[in-house]
Amino acid sequence: MGNLDQHITGFELWHLSLPVVSARDHGIGRVDGACEIIVLRLSAEGGEIGWGEASPWVVFTGSPEASFAALDRYIRPLVMGRPVSDRAEIMRQASRAVAHCTEAKAALETALLDLEGRISGLPVHKLLGGKCRDEIPLSVSLANPDFAQDRALLDRLRADGVRIVKLKTGFRDHAFDLMRLEALAQDYSNFALRVDFNQGLEPKGALSRVRDIAAFKPDFMEQPVRAPLFGLMAEIRGAIDVPLLADESVFGPEDMARAIHEEICDGVSVKIMKSGSLTRAQEVAGMAERHGLKAYGGDMFEAGLAHLAGAHMIAATPAIDLGCEFYQARYYLAEDILETPFPCNGGAVQVPDGPGLGIRPDVDKLNHYCIAKGRAA
Questions:
Q1: Using 50, 70 and 90 to split pLDDT, how confident is the model at 1?
Q2: 369/14 Cα distance (integer angstroms)
Q3: Whole-number Cα distances in Å, 158 to 104, 190, 279, 318, 347
Q4: I need a labelling partner for 150 at 20 to 30 A (CA). Which of 171, 201, 256, 287 fits?
């Protein structure tokens, strides 16, 4: 066991713009050309390094500029010179130092856990309670406005052994959604199907459209209407016989408590970028499980570093049993940032067992895609 009392001596940031292979439309917005993330590197006096990623989306959790500023200006002073063993107290102080900025706080805890794991020789999942699964079924989302390109992706997924897809709906007319659902039922019936609206439906007419899509019997439907519309979510839940998941309505444990009380969902999409840390994400999943609700491992527009954090969190969280959505590193980014490929095989994410997160970013790639950098100390 290494010395966790050694101090943190380095705090570096990269703001990256990572090219993507296609446009993607979601109910509340579009991504095209590139996605932007923030990468954090912490260094300890003994020479070990820990990495974290903040993966914001401006229409959902916040902006990359806000994540960068939260880390660089407000969180950096809480970290520098502190013992690595102070992880819990650092996170407590960070939660109060700057409001919101959940992605920045997720990056911070990821880097602290990775650093602690590297020093102690333990994988992050061990630090989070111990591994309950070696692999996590992978779901890939279909959101290309050109459905012919999504068909090509489906053929690639089938060859790779992926058997779960989630169709993004609500960003165009209802006929487009029904056409794609019919094509999936006819030509790709060997895939398990989920549906996600990303808040794309207006309240008027939402129930009718959801009922039409429920007729295709997806495994679940996710967040049809805007996050604050808890009453309408509850109404929709009661009107369909397909499980309804909450995503944007539930960021952290506080929202989960309200969602349970108001009975708005049958399950929840758990994301470390929403929750603000891996441990808070585990808390959300645990609350869902205790009230008979399901949990799914969602993500934002992430690179492989954030995928690794999510994979370790899910590996240590029995309640998240609907698989994960960590596909961007392999199927959406033109190039990922890890030294070795994010571990997927046969339609499942393989959970690393090496110290910390198990894989490091490639610093040459970070510098290549960097559009702004924070100071090194």
A1: low
A2: 9
A3: 35, 9, 34, 27, 9
A4: 201
H-helix or E-strand spanning residue 251: none
Query: Does the structure show a pLDDT above 70 at 377?
Result: no
Residue 50: what residue type?
G
Longest dimension (CA), the chain: 61
Q: Among all chains, which residue has been given the structure tokens 């959902």? A: 60
pLDDT tens-digit series, residues 220-263: 999 999 999 999 999 999 999 999 999 999 999 999 999 999 99
Nearest to 206 by CA among 230, 236, 178: 236
CA angle (361 as vertex; 273, 111 as ends), nearest 5: 45
Residue 171 to residue 24: CA distance in whole angstroms: 10
The alpha-helical segments, DSSP class H, found in 55-101 are 64-69, 76-79, 87-97
Task: Tell me the domains of the chain and their CATH numbers.
Answer: 8-121+363-373 (3.30.390.10), 127-350 (3.20.20.120)
Measured CA to CA, the distance from residue 201 to residue 213 in angstroms comes to 13
* Polymer length of the chain: 377
For 129, the enclosing helix (H) or strand (E) is: none
Angle between helices 253-262 and 230-239 (to 10 degrees): 50
Sign of torsion over alpha carbons 249, 25, 204, 183: negative
Model confidence pLDDT, tens digit, residues 324-376: 999 999 999 999 999 999 999 999 999 999 999 999 999 999 999 999 998 76
Using alpha carbons only, how large is the chain's radius of gyration in Å? 20
Residues 6+ positions from 240 with CB-CB distance below 8 Å: 210, 211, 214, 221
Task: Please give the structure tokens belonging to residue 194.
Answer: 């989920």
